[in-house]
Amino acid sequence: MKNTYFLKQLMMTALISTAFLSSAQAADALKMELTANKVVKDAEGKVTYLPVRTAPAGTVIQYKAIYTSTVNQSINDLAVTLPIPANMTFTGEVSPSSAQASIDGKNYADMPLIRKVSGKVVNVPLSEYRSVRWNIKLLPAKKSAAVSLNTITD
Questions:
Q1: CATH no. for residue 42?
Q2: Which domain holds residue 60?
Q3: DSSP per position, 3-32
């Protein structure tokens, strides 16, 4: 099955939130560029990223968001969130590695996510992850920060 709209879908649902800026101020202070790239490894293990619009099931896709400050002052305590598109499964690979994940888009915790089942603590399956969040402590004026996550097409 080909997923022909995953970048558009992610763009529509990508969230930006900040602790100290209102929504209007955040929109004016930040520019976000989102790309979807097929992750290709050669025989030596070298990774190449190729732009992609559609992909067959089992293809690894990296979503990368670059947040750029458009103002002449630093932005503190910026939380940026990327949802995991429908018809995609999170691989557990993120950059930077300090990301937190959520299965409901509201409650975030360090990865791997865990829960109790029959009195035992178990890892939540990656297929249940719905979004990933990074906390950027400081984004200097006119500078950029990149975050990314990898998924596999279902």
A1: 2.60.40
A2: 6-153
A3: -S-HHHHHHHH-EEEESSS-HHHHHHHEEE
* All residues at 6 or more sequence positions from 108 whose CB lies less than 8 Å from its CB, including other chains: 100, 101, 102, 133
Share of the chain above pLDDT 90, in %: 79
> Distance between CA 45 and CA 40 in Å, rounded?
9
The 10s digit of each residue's pLDDT in 13-29 is 454 443 334 444 555 78
Tokens of 126: 């990656």
Place of tokens 């529509």: 12
Residues across the chain: 154
**Under 8 Å between Cβ of 96 and 147:** yes
Please check whether residue 80 is in contact with residue 99, taking contact to mean a CB–CB distance below 8 angstroms.
no
Both tokens assigned to 77: 């305590």
What's the pTM value of the predicted model, to 2 decimals?
0.83
DSSP state of 66: E
Question: What contacts 122, CB < 8 A, 6 or more positions away?
Answer: 114, 115, 116
Q: Is residue 1 part of a domain?
A: no
CA 68 to chain centre: 16
CB 128 within 8 A of CB 62: no
